[in-house]
Amino acid sequence: QVHLVESGGGSVQAGGSLRLSCAASGYTYSSFYWGWFRQVPGKEREGVASIESDGVTSYADSVKGRFTISRDKFANTLYLQMNGLKPEDTAMYYCAAWVGRPIPLPPKFVGYWGQGTQVTVSS
Predict the structure, then answer these.
(1) Is the pLDDT score of 28 beyond 90?
(2) Which segments within 8-116 are labelled E, that is strand?
(3) Can you tell me the distance from the alpha carbon of 100 to that of 7, in angstroms, rounded to the nearest whole number?
(4) Are 69 and 79 in contact (CB under 8 A)?
(5) What distance in Å separates the CA atoms of residue 103 and residue 80, rounded to the nearest whole number?
(6) d(CA 32, CA 101)
């Protein structure tokens, strides 16, 4: 079992930055993919970024060049640095862990979810 706890969400103006953190505990399988998904009401949860155990990263086209995913293996913590935020980035952001492949990935294939942290970007 893996337990994920996000922090770092909040409200920011367009163009601003936020850093999300996700503390992982429990059985952190070495072959897990780790990542961030986001969801707005009425839409399916979508993958934003993922990172493999060897550090290879993948990003949704909508965030490439603005968001950076990273992981501190020793602290078992996942991060998402979000720069140049836009109103369309407003969503609930979820930390996730799974086996298989990087994003894009249907959310049904994610094994573990955090509780989510809200990010609101105003224009």
Answers:
(1) no
(2) 10-13, 18-26, 33-39, 46-51, 57-59, 67-72, 77-82, 91-98, 112-113
(3) 26
(4) yes
(5) 15
(6) 9
pLDDT band at 29 (very low <50, low <70, confident <90, very high): confident
3-state secondary structure of 88: helix
Q: Does the pLDDT value for residue 20 go beyond 90?
A: yes
- The closest alpha carbon to 93, from 1, 3, 8, belongs to 8
Whether 8 has a pLDDT exceeding 90, the answer reads yes
- Amino acid occupying residue 15: G
Mean of the per-residue pLDDT values for the chain? 96
Specify the residue for token string 């609101």: 120
For residue 71, the one-letter residue type is R
